[in-house]
Amino acid sequence: PSSGQGIEMTRRIAPRPPTTEPTPQTGPQAVFIRSHRIHVSMEKGVATTHIVQIFHNPNRAQLEGTYIFPLPPEATIGEFKMSMNGKMVSAEVIESEKARDIYESIVRRRKDPGLLEYVGQKMIRARVFPIPARGDITIEIRYEQILNSEGGVTEYVYPLNSSRFSKKPLQEVVISVDLASDIPLKAIYSPTHPVDVVRKGDRAAQVVYEGKNVVPGQDFVLYSSQSRKDLGLSLLTHREEGEDGFFLLFVTPKEDYNENEIQPKAIQFVVDTSGSMTGQKMEQARRALVHCLKHLNPRDHFNVIAFSTEARPLATKFLSATEQNVTQAVRFVEALEARGGTAIDEALTQALTATPPEGILPMVIFLTDGKPTIGERNPTQILANVTKKNLARSRIFVFGVGSNLDTHLLDKIAEANQGTREYVTEGEDIAVKVKRFYDKASSPVLANLDLKIDGVEVLDVYPKKLPDLFRGTQLVVLGRYDGKGDVAVHLRGKIGVEQREFVHEATFPTSDSSAEFLPRLWAHRKVAYLVDEIRLHGHSKELKAEIVRLGKRYGLVTPFTSALILEEEMAGTPITRGRNSSRPGFSSGGIKQPSSSGGVNPRSTKPKSVHEKLGRQDREFERKARLMHDSLKLTGGKKAVELSQKLEKDKQANSLAQNDESAENETERAIRRVGSKTFYQIDGTWIDSTYDHEKDKAKVIEIEYLSKAYFELTARSKPIARCLSLGERVIVKVGEKVFRISPAAEKGE
User: Fold this and answer.
1) Whose CB among 596, 627, 686, 713 lies 3.0–4.6 Å from 679's, allowing a Cys bridge?
2) Collapsing DSSP states into helix, strand and coil, what is residue 658?
3) Is the pTM of this model over 0.90?
4) Hey, which residues does 573 pair with through a beta bridge?
5) Which helix (H) or strand (E) holds 32?
């Protein structure tokens, strides 16, 4: 099967010359999914899923097979279409108990445990004949399901995972979800895939994910929430027995605001016009500024400061956003030319000295492509001057262009002044980035946020300092908690000079396995924070050790974790190819054994561990750490795609980056995540990251692969069955018990 749904070949139809038993070279190739398109409509607690799959037979002979598709337990089939020689093929829906027998029979016959992922789910099954030689067949399915909703949060899951069954990339994967509601929609979020969310007022939205030439590695999960309140607060939790819990809090403002409900802002546009901005960069900067000026709100105030050898303001004070003043500013911007040096200190001093009107949110958009070359050049002193002058607590949003930047200075300016930073590589369109940011930040609805949760102890909460809340955005807060029960969540903030407080009720449970992705998502956010601390304040052994610990525990690739760390500290043996794994998704993955010098490249005599290279290459650490921090801010699908493209460009331009990324990709192939657990492939065995050989070896229960006890274990616990779907050699720790699965010949080794 492919993608947890697919065609199991039963026999080859066309005759072939007598040979020995088929080998991977002489036997038929697997039928694979060429295109996978899913459209989902969600309304009034019901989701209708329409699937169109195109399968391709790469063989020179037609094939016969059995199509299977795992269904959600509560799903009702509305339509199944498959045309074979002009005839419509009928399918049967098999309930979960009978489906279990079928799943297990395929596991026994093929010695492939992948389908254990779906034990306990019912299925669609249909006989498929003929599958034309080197041809395609199209299958369409439509089903409906009642969605699970708890605490105002609705979860939708689609079984997209195919990495465990096939490494053949899908040429295209498209998921489109239309949401409609009688109650205003609030949070819309996917923890598994980079999605674009287009809101259509308060009660409708479209969510889209697109992938090209990808091997989906996890099922698609989408969360949404509804609330009649102006500010929606939604909570997800995960907690394993006897441990602190994890929580994710969404804060989402309503979409439809009238003009008087949007907080006015006083914004300084500070743009670099030094000689290095000549040409396309200057043209893009002008275009971006004109867009921002023309989209000011009527109650806003603004000014424009151009700087090169000296700072040149449009006005000596803030201007109201009248049509006349905006027209004057547009003419000023369109006349800007690039020449001279870079007086960063003077420009920021002028921007921060101006006094904004009372009750208006002060902001600075600062765009530069260089380091300070005129006036004060010492980064420490420039930062001190910014702190001293920023009495109005203006938010400073930095846009850096190109590679000749003091990113350390720009990062600190943004971080110390409640702003963000965005870096644009050579050749990227500055205007697109600035416009996208401004369209979000143009309508602030709540500033100076403060979050308090009464009733439980919360710890390790990220982000540490909550950003301002804008219309069309949502705030995602991750943390851990100790305690249990019903609590009150207080969110305070300012709208103009008025202090507002929003109170929501929530429940923090003792045990909850519904949001299994939360521990890893929290760990990602904490690692991003720690990496940023190192970038901003210098290296620390304690922070580095914590990054390494989190990386190993949750299977994260960080600037400090590498294959060598996993090999040396987890098992004392190299992570290798799965020598007996029957599935191509595992047999071709793994890590090269280190050379005697300690590196992953046996042709080199120099140490090649990632963390040694980071010690010698501060610029490379800056690149990777910045990308990591940005990629983990949970700012949406487009951002994730942009960062992926940026990383690919950096790889092509930097041989060190190529080596590091190669090592990281190899490491990723030796890591699998099942629910909240992380597994590493160590010498052909998938080992639970929570398993400690010295402490847990006395607790090990040996179970023979495909034995009666093996299938009894999978029937007893679906979470364990999902873990055993990794392969025929698995060590999994559940509470105080450890199960070691291995073939009969290896039992007790």
Assistant:
1) 686
2) helix
3) no
4) none
5) strand 32-43
